[in-house]
Write a structure and sequence with these properties.
The protein is mostly helical. The chain is built from seven helices and no strands. Helix 3 runs antiparallel to helix 6, helix 3 runs parallel beside helix 7 and helix 6 runs antiparallel to helix 7.
Length: 204
């Protein structure tokens, strides 16, 4: 029997283009499920009331906080994409792969799942423990695909801090959830319909 030698194991970096669509979705949803589980466990040990954390306020101000931040982020992102070279904001093609061939309803589902899972962990649990600044440092570091370029890294940090700020101002976790959802949804739709426009131009 051949002796097992751990030194014979070779690990190589896999680019997003080498992953098929099914595995990409499995990885996406599995990551979000793990994020949700960690968030729920952390909230439990913090002795927070989950039902109270996710309760919907009696006033609608949290909605305006969410949409207001989302509108500001989308405007800044569109300006950056217009004036900054594409390679300076490259995320390795991950967002393009996730959204470019996706149905509109699926883009909405992905955006909602990501918004709820990540905000529950980062705003609901992490920010409760260490505040918005250090939460945003961790949030930016977790989005490792952006770390190669300072512009998207700075943008992710700023968005995270903004999400933490409106959470504190509104007093509701639904404010950052709404903002996160709208940002991802609009950006996903832009990627989706930009692909259609490119295809039409190619055919013409």
């Amino acid at each position: 029997m051949k002796k097992f030698d751990i030194r014979n194991i070779k690990v190589r970096k896999v680019s997003v283009d080498e992953i098929d669509d099914r595995m990409l979705l499995i990885n996406l949803y599995a990551t979000q499920a793990l994020t949700l589980i960690i968030g729920l466990i952390w909230i439990f040990f913090q002795r927070q009331n989950l039902l109270q954390l996710l309760s919907i306020p009696s006033t609608a101000s949290f909605i305006w906080w969410g949409f207001g931040l989302a509108a500001a982020v989308i405007a800044v992102d569109l300006l950056i994409s217009r004036w900054v070279p594409e390679e300076a904001a490259d995320d390795g093609g991950v967002n393009d792969r996730i959204f470019r061939n996706r149905a509109i309803w699926h883009i909405a589902v992905i955006s909602f799942v990501v918004a709820v899972c990540e905000e529950l962990l980062f705003r609901g649990a992490v920010q409760h423990a260490i505040g918005p600044y250090w939460t945003s440092i961790i949030f930016a570091a977790i989005h490792v695909r952006y770390l190669k370029h300072w512009i998207p890294t700075g943008l992710v940090f700023s968005i995270s801090y903004g999400l933490g700020w409106i959470y504190e101002q509104s007093g509701s976790l639904w404010a950052p959830i709404i903002a996160h959802f709208v940002i991802d949804l609009v950006m996903g739709l832009i990627i989706r319909f930009r692909r259609d426009n490119h295809e039409q131009e190619a055919e013409a």
